[in-house]
Amino acid sequence: MPDLASDRKSSVLRTATLGDLRTLQHVAILKDTASVGDCLKTLAAHRIVSAPVVVATKEDEHPGPVWHFKKAPEDVLGFVDIKDVIHCFLEDVKDTGILEYPSMLKKMRALEQKGTAFSHRTIRELHLTGGDGCFLHVGQQAVNLFELAHGYLLNPSRCGAQGSEGRPAIHRIAIFDSSGRIVNIISQSDIVRYLLEHVDKMSDAASQTIADLGMATKQLITVPPEKSAVEALKIMEDNNVGAVAVVNSEGQIVGTFSATDMRTITQEHFGSLALPVGEFLALEHGTEYSGYTIASETAVQGTDAHAFARDRLGRVALPGAEVGQSLVVCGPLTTLKGVMSLLTRNRVHRTFVVDENMKPVSVISCTDILRKLCQIEQ
């Protein structure tokens, strides 16, 4: 009979440490005096969804919204991420009736106006620093990956992560040195990538299918491509999910919409949230006009242009091509190792599980993977 206790002690989750994950980094850090507009520009420039926020002081000799990463701040507020920004913006428009405007053009202009005013406000003013991250001293780099995942990322209330009330998990940890400088950001994706690189030291779960592991039945939220992007964001907010599957009238997945798709949005782009989510994604990913608006406008129905837009659905061969995405999907019989490889290779946080007809049945994220592996290790 195998010695399970011995196997747990020798697994990579138990033997690898935070120190093994650390690499040389240039960490983007924002000041709490940065405007929302500058915050979005900084996130977009670094193609990240989150950044630590520090308290700006009168002695700070570096102008601009970004804190000089080589200087130790007097105080750290937490993290700001794109989901915090979206949440605050949706709160701003919640009681305005903008989401109910039947005219896309009217909705677009209203969102542009709201977005301009919103972008001029500061992180400090909006209390934008949430709890999607915690902080560890570099002296704690001997913490093993199981403790890091189970004790911090998956149970943020245990480590006192700011604003973690009701948050099922956090996605990143900032490492600070003895002088108080933030020198590293370690994410869930970093842990999954490291585990994949050392998959020979993982438990047998790596070779099991996600169906056998019970990971192919997670509740899924979907939206049609005609739904406006801002309404899709509201649905994500109301259901406390980080992504939705965009599905056509047959229920087949044609794209995914998540916070990651918002990481390049800047002040002047708030109006584009009035676009149908399928069209928003197509523009975001640099593909041709997808035809969602023209396919639904009564004024052009029956024209050659309308027929071309509708027929385009049947000409798209690759999943996600319709909205300019390379969809990262798997099936219930994909192994856990296969899912980890998909996420790591494509640098994404989640993959949708689809059936043989490309209909999404579940979704698996880095959080789900770490939670399953920690359950097995316990």
From TrEMBL:
Q: Which GO terms describe its cellular component?
A: cytoplasm; nucleus
Gene3D superfamilies linked to this entry: CBS-domain (3.10.580.10)
**Keywords for this protein:** CBS domain, Repeat
Q: Where is the CBS domain?
A: 215-273, 323-378
Say yes or no: keyword Repeat present: yes
- Does the record carry rRNA-binding as a key word? no
SMART domains membership: CBS
- What's the domain of life for this entry? Eukaryota
Protein name according to UniProt: CBS domain-containing protein
Organism expressing this protein natively: Ostreobium quekettii
